[in-house]
Fold each of these.
Amino acid sequence: MNETVKNIVTRKSCSDFKPEHISREELEEIIEAGLNAPSGMNSQCVRLIAVQDDETVKRLSGLNAAIAKEAMAKINPAMAENFPADPFYGARDVIAVVADKKGGTYIYDGSLAMGNLMNAAWSMGIDSRWIHRAKEVFDTEEGKKILEKCGITDDVEGIGFCILGHAAAEKEKTEIKPNRVFYL
């Protein structure tokens, strides 16, 4: 198995991070991989917001948690009560992926960028996890202010948050469910 395929098939999501940042150089290398993800018609509509500022990471996690709890409370109040206070699991570094809605395949393009970010991180010995609700976070007034602070004025939609760091504990790889491939 070549090294690229090996990294892809061994990658796992992390849900408990050490309280330390990755280096700026590591972050930039991961970002480079995200920027080089394929995009429909080469639209390059994806924008990446790299956050290493502890206060901003905590605020994004807090917004995410509030949105999740509110949505869950409507479906299952008990589940909302047990939702983690920090949906970023203690990660100190985050790359928010947003995409310009003018790109016809912007959701897919953002998803490909997200995959590249996580696979690149894993290949470098850095753990990651895709956290949802970026759409809802960047639809809030506070989320819009963060976009504005970055100079993002396009009509964008949040695709996801790629949280990064080093795992606090070893995690077992999830078993792959059978009967999901069909050959014709």
Note: The helical segments are 3-10, 24-35, 54-75, 77-81, 106-123, 134-139, 141-149.
Amino acid sequence: MGKVLGDVLGLAAGVAVSPLPIIAVILILATPRGRLNGLLFTVGWILGLSLLGAVMLAIASPAGASARNHPAAWVGALKLALGVLLAVFGARQWHRRPKDPSQAQLPKWMSALDRLAPVKIFALGLALSALNAKNAPLTIAAGATIGSAGLPVGQQIASLAIFVVIASLGLFAPLGVFLLGGERAKTTLGSWKDWAAQHNVAVMAVLFFVLGLKLLGDGISILTS
């Protein structure tokens, strides 16, 4: 289990450093129902990661993801494909990044966050975790890694739970500041939001590319060993 956690913690960190969801939760916390909506958004995020990871575990185990204590060939092929996908996205993001970070613009849907009902806030958290172009491949790769290790079911579930917790730290931080930070919370969260908004594209591009290369390496290693 220790080796599996070592393999998936990097993927979890990649999910945790997701500027757009962090900006979204900060904006949500600034709305009149910030406490409730912030918690609902975070719960939706956790549920999205958990469901996607659980589906991957359910697919991996019966499909023979582990062959003689070594990941099966299809696991290597999956990681290779995900790695190519992320690397290509990373290159495209870097090419499209604004030359002047101060000119970076947030997605238009963020301007409507203060008007969304709690159910839609929950659904947004679910979508940004399970359907995001970066988070979904990383969560799928983590599920495949856990499922291919030949661990007992209990250890698989525990490994997935640890992945989800680490992957959610990016949201836990602003939520914790909001709930415990008192009067300084607004200023602190505002500065975090401004930085993330300016550097969102560049951060995402680097993460896409670096994590794509990692998955490429993992896939090649599995297929050639």
Note: The CA atoms of residues 59 and 218 lie 20 Å apart.
Amino acid sequence: MACGPYQVAFYEFGALYYQTENGGAGIDKDLVDELVRRTGCKLQSGVDSRVRIWNRMETGALDMTVSGIATPEREKFAVFLPYITTRNYVLMQPEIASLVTTQDAFMKDSTLLLGVVKSFRHGKYYDEVVETLRKQGRVVEAADYPSLVRIFQAKRVSAILGLPTSLAPLLGVVKGVSVQQVADWAMTDDVTGSLVLSRQRMAAKDIEAFRLALQAAREDGTLDQILHRHLQPEFARLVRMGQHPVARVATR
């Protein structure tokens, strides 16, 4: 039986997905292309904001998205197939990075603001940090990652949260950004991004086909090749592709 057509939504987020003269590119784009090649499934792709993507997934208006972080609430309406593991880092303004050298110092200075993308989940540790700062009125939310970068460039925030896949493309592009401004506050708080498949809209056989294809790409080293295609070595070492076996999950 035919697989699809299904709708997959990408979102612009550093090396995961970005625009070129020839269209979309990135780790997530290459991953989906590889899974399409292996499954023969037909996909129709588009780009949307993360907020709208999660709303569409929850309301049953979208079949699939990428690099999503599982939560108990989200697992009620979607199946998560993990493929990328890393953790968030803090990128601070250059004039602040030299003065604020610890998380404690940042948290105690009420004048410092943190920028995040609305609806993003950053892992247990940073989600608690964000919530603490939000209660103090010290969080600035952007609709998407490109908007967050613009807010940072305009110095409307003191720091932003980002994965290595999102911070790496800023080096040499955004004025004043260097690795010396990147702080690691949560050395054990890894987050895992997954292929997100709608329980309501996708057939169980097709979900299983994607699981098997992803598992095969993990085992033959294709996922690791995709990673190094888009990240400099100093950032690629902070990311793991296919660390976890893609276990079968209940789809109904």
Note: The longest strand covers residues 78-86.
